[in-house]
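Record filed below.
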Amino acid sequence: MDSILSALREYISHIPLTDTHEHLTPEVIWLEQEPDISIFFTHYASSDLVSSGMPAAEMARFKGNQLSHDEKWELLEPHWLRARNTTYCRSVDMAARDLFDLPGLSRETYKTLLERMRDVRHPGWYRKVLKDKANIEISILDKWTPHIDRTLFVPSVRFDEFATVSNRSELAAIAETAGTSIYSLTDLLKALDLRFKAGVEYGMVGVKCGLAYNRPLYFDNTTRHEAEIVFNKILKDRGNGPSWQEAKPLQDYIVHQIIRRAADLGLPMLFHTGIQEGTGNFIADSDPTLLNNLFFTYKNVKFDVFHAGFPYSRELGVLAKNFSNVYPDMCWMHIIGAKSARMILDEWLDLVPANKILGFGGDYRFVEGIYAHAQIARENVARVLADRVERGDQTMDEAVELAGRILRLN
């Protein structure tokens, strides 16, 4: 077993990864920011600190710019010691160790970490981390920005604001961005067409839907008339507009319109499912089985279903087994829980054709986290495949082929 695992680790370390999902701040903006250990807690690890008992007010102070670095450490330390066992937090330790040559994040190392963060703050750090250290060929960036480095990233684009619009000021903002006027549902759809046109010119390779943070993922195929009734109420409303429940017919209609435009362009739909970032969420809203009707309706659209649908990963595996247009994506999953990710991948390899599993997406706002996530993902894939070779489920040659599919080719 040790020789099999060692051989697979070595092979997998040389695979240039396809990274399916990132939120990384553009380097030109990052260069203007003052180094701060709170950067490593912009998301994910901060959720585990809150879960461990860190009050929200303390977290806000920790992330703010009013405290000294020493005062920030005093706030962080007791919660860090409680939560550093999680994969979210272990990723921070890994980044400190591998990229800054420190044993991890601690009272003894945080000042040195800050110094070394300052030392690397120069153009080219992103390339060094993503290409030289993480061996990532290309990353799909979930961000519409003029500062995208096309040698490192290609973009996916969201149009969620067209579905969630709930008052006249939001309509005005959409109209300004699209460069048109909106007085009717027809005008809103015209604005959507203009934004899609801009997205094509921007080079988008997929259309992202993140509405699981706002509402359940079931989207009825509502009529234009039902949607128009809601739109007209929004147009007449002088307040904050309807709740999502009241606005649901319009939201559902627009989501279907977005999918149809993606279909016309031959672009995949990327859906957030499963766990949501932060704490205190309505997890059931993100159940991927709620998308079942879309898979039936739009058989010519490829659905890239994010975050392994966790904790509904078995259900996502069954959906991918049932529908040729459903692709289960492990972006974020390896840092949600390393062992959970291994169990999911192993089960999916029994359930799902190997050409459909997307094995890695960093899903980070800071580049050092992407590196750490990539290392955990490579280790997970190596361990799962080594176990399968040891059990006789795959030959070594098949395991090598699977690694290339999961981490790059798919």
